[in-house]
Amino acid sequence: MALKGAARAEADRLMAAFRAAGAVPVEADILQPAEVLLDLYGEDIRARAYVTADPLRGEMMLRPDFTVPVVQMHMSGGAEPARYCYMGEVFRKQEHLTERKSEYFQVGYEVFDRANPALADAEVFALFADLLAPLRLRAVTGDIAILMAAVQGLRTLESRKSALLRHIWRPRRFTQLLDRFGGRAPVPETRARLLAALAAGETLTTAPRIGLRSDAEIAARLAALEADAQAAPIAAEEVARLEDLLNLSAKSPAALAHLRDLAREMPAIASATDRMEARLDALGAKGVDVDTLDFEASHGRTTLEYYDGFVFSFHGRGPDLPPIASGGRYDALTQVLGQGRSIPAVGGVIRPGLVADLTEGASC
Amino acid sequence: MLKLGIPSKGRLMEQCFDWFASRGITLRRTGSDREYAGAVEGADGLALVLLSAGEIPRELAAGRIHLGVTGSDLVRDKLADWDRQVAELAPMGFGHADLIIAVPASWPDVDTLDDLDAAAAAFRRSHGHRLRIATKYHRLVREFLTRNGVADYQLVDSQGATEGTVKNLTAEAIADITSTGETLRANHLKILADGLVHQSQATLYAARAADWENGAAETLAGLAPRLGFDPKAL
């Protein structure tokens, strides 16, 4: 493992390159209010971030990443368009005994630009690819927007689509739901009993109501369950097409051709596929060899759930090791943190410590 | 000396003493009722240490005791990668308790984790915060819910009287241990059909980080046939 000094020197080099690309350097506090991060990422972040108690400000976290504070800073009055860069340590609690580090440097580059998202995606990726080129890493790309469009295009209840959309980032749960909505998994026994009782007009419970969840909320869910039970399952061919899409893994031109084929049956993904094509054109124009660039439709599904478009990562040897660099588009996050305002945004981070490890390894 | 940590109080201590006694090892407290000192008869090289049950996982992890008896729920909740820190030697057949997830009995629409997840999503939309689950078993419950793909919840800490939190409006659901379910029913809660997080019982553990030189390993090997565990478990 590279020493901190080597990581910092590499971070300085990357930071200089980001500044040369036009980014304004910004800083973020190490202590971040836990509430914002917990609300955004959920309980999982508590397992991954160091939580500490401030006597006056309450629960605080050692920053697990820069994205949230940088987006907050931009949304509270940054000029448009904007390019930011930053460097510093992030902290990730490791719940298992591994060689993964619990504190390490990140150097990041973020673009907030409304004009041309495909161009902005290509700008970030090409910059990273260029800086990391000497390391001969494997780059993988994906596009969460295509998955979201495919789910939104299903011919089924809105409630089913929003359940699937919520769980795009939890593949196992997503599969379970798809099996149920597609009629491939049996209705759970408890649900069958409830539906029978509802149909018979029986009293469902005599227990006193306790807690914040109101009778109206319970009634709304019961109505939704009845509607779900009456709705036809998602057609088998639609499920099959969605699974075909989720399993798509190919070089970018072949992946694009396959998506074009799928889009004939799944028109909902057509415009997201157009955006992918525009991005590939922009990448090609910036000198990225798109013919050898891997595209995996499910890439990014197991990371933190704020990416909603283009996603990418750069890997060294070993699929179990953390990526050397990663990033993506997070338009919706700017809306969540922008209190009503939003702006298309894309960015990524490089781990200079891992870059230094590989550089040392290559030179000896 | 091989140090054996036993819960210092109550029924759990007595059941431990009985368990060892039926295997030919007499453990007893010495001095006054209030003094935490103990003696061992029937096993050479074994010393008794009386500790709070909740501290035994930590003492095992640090290697300050060689052997310890505590609930498997506490070991799994308090120790990250618990099986790399301690070896499970023998489940002891008492101190049974199930760590379960329970919701108000007045929720007819929630019987499974799948229901809980859907209710949590709707709850978050209408209340502006995540559905709160009160527990003191943070690691076990979080890992269980993550594994089962439940989202839009948050854990709130509750060190006691957890069954009362829903009525007191400090949580919407709970994750707690139960043996008969009576307290749950009295507080108008029901267990989810697939909400069993862990079945706990009193268990004898060995500390991987303890000093096994100077005869401790031999003492352990000598105990193995009498206590009925695999001497190679460590």
TrEMBL record, chain A:
Pfam families for this protein: tRNA-synt_His (PF13393)
What UniProt keywords are attached to this protein's entry?
A: Glycosyltransferase, Transferase
- Residue ranges occupied by any Class II Histidinyl-tRNA synthetase (HisRS)-like catalytic core domain in the UniProt entry: 11-229
User: Which GO terms label this protein's molecular function in UniProt?
Assistant: glycosyltransferase activity
Give the highest taxon in the source lineage. Answer: Bacteria
Q: Which InterPro entries match?
A: aa-tRNA-synth_II/BPL/LPL (IPR045864), HisRS-like_core (IPR041715), HisRS/HisZ (IPR004516)
Is the keyword Glycosyltransferase assigned to this protein? yes
Q: Which NCBIfam families match?
A: PRK12295.1-5 (NF008952)
Q: What is the protein name for this chain?
A: ATP phosphoribosyltransferase regulatory subunit
Please report the organism this UniProt entry assigns to the protein. Defluviimonas salinarum
TrEMBL record, chain B:
Q: Please give the Gene Ontology molecular function terms for this protein.
A: ATP phosphoribosyltransferase activity
Coiled-coil annotated residue ranges, if any: none
Matching InterPro entries = ATP_PRibTrfase_cat, ATP_PRibTrfase_HisG
| Catalysed reactions, semicolon-separated | 1-(5-phospho-beta-D-ribosyl)-ATP + diphosphate = 5-phospho-alpha-D-ribose 1-diphosphate + ATP
Q: What class of enzyme is it?
A: transferase
Task: Answer whether the UniProt record assigns the keyword Manganese to this protein.
Answer: no
The EC designation for this entry is 2.4.2.17
**Is Amino-acid biosynthesis one of the keywords UniProt gives this record?**
yes
Q: Which Pfam families match?
A: HisG (PF01634)
This protein's pathway reads: Amino-acid biosynthesis; L-histidine biosynthesis; L-histidine from 5-phospho-alpha-D-ribose 1-diphosphate: step 1/9
Q: Which UniProt keywords apply?
A: Amino-acid biosynthesis, Glycosyltransferase, Histidine biosynthesis, Transferase
Query: Which residue intervals define the domain ATP phosphoribosyltransferase catalytic in the entry?
Result: 53-212
Q: Which CDD domains match?
A: PBP2_HisGL3
What the entry lists under Gene3D superfamilies is as follows:
Periplasmic binding protein-like II
Its biological purpose is as follows:
Catalyzes the condensation of ATP and 5-phosphoribose 1-diphosphate to form N'-(5'-phosphoribosyl)-ATP (PR-ATP). Has a crucial role in the pathway because the rate of histidine biosynthesis seems to be controlled primarily by regulation of HisG enzymatic activity.
Name the record gives this protein: ATP phosphoribosyltransferase
Q: Which organism does this sequence originate in?
A: Albidovulum salinarum
Q: Give the classification, highest ranks.
A: Bacteria, Pseudomonadati, Pseudomonadota, Alphaproteobacteria, Rhodobacterales
Please name the gene that encodes this protein. hisG
